[in-house]
Structures are given as C-alpha cells and as structure tokens.
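User: Second chain of the day. Same drill as before.
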Amino acid sequence: MNTSHGRVATTVDEAVNFSNVTYVALTASNEEIQNEVQSSTVDAKTTTRDGFLFDTRETHFSYPFTINLSDAFLSNGDVPQLPRSTSNLRRRARYSGRIFPRVFSRARGMK
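Assistant: Same format as last time:
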C-alpha cells in the first residue's frame, strides 16, 4: 500500500493443524476405557515493511482438549460412566519491532 510517507507492505503467513489421538481398551473386568486427546494449533507470522524498517509478530496458539472415559458394564445392565476432561488455551507471542534487515557488503581491492 502506498502511504503519505512511502510504500508499506504487510505479509501474513499462517498454518492451522488439527490432530486426534484415541485409545480404547476393554479390560478383563468388562470395563471400557477411552482416552482421547484433540489438539488444534495455529502458527502465524505477520511482517510489515516500511521502507528499510520492518516489524515482525509471531504467535503460536494451542487448544488441547483431553477426555478420559471409563464405562463399567454391570450384570444388571447398568453402565455407570466416569468422565473427566480438561481443556486450556496456550499462547506464545514474539515481537521484533523496527529493525533493519541485515545487509552484508565487502569492499575488495581497497588500500
């Protein structure tokens, strides 16, 4: 974008991932155990260039969700269930502001 003080360019790179891992077992005592972990992650990098200066923001979000279920199949037909779950948001961010890109130059043949 052209502004009153020159050209400003912004680039956004982002990746979103999802995974699901499930463990299911039936024990000898007729109990079913199910453990599941679902996880979503988002990684984002935003870079804004203003002339020779640039700002960079990097952010990582994680949304893990864990559930543990235990079902017991009783002889009277009852199936009591003991559910347990946890979920939380994790965020990590890094900011690099107003820095010059590295420019390397080497003069040769000067005495």
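The first strand starts at residue 2 and ends at 3.

User: Great, on to the next one.
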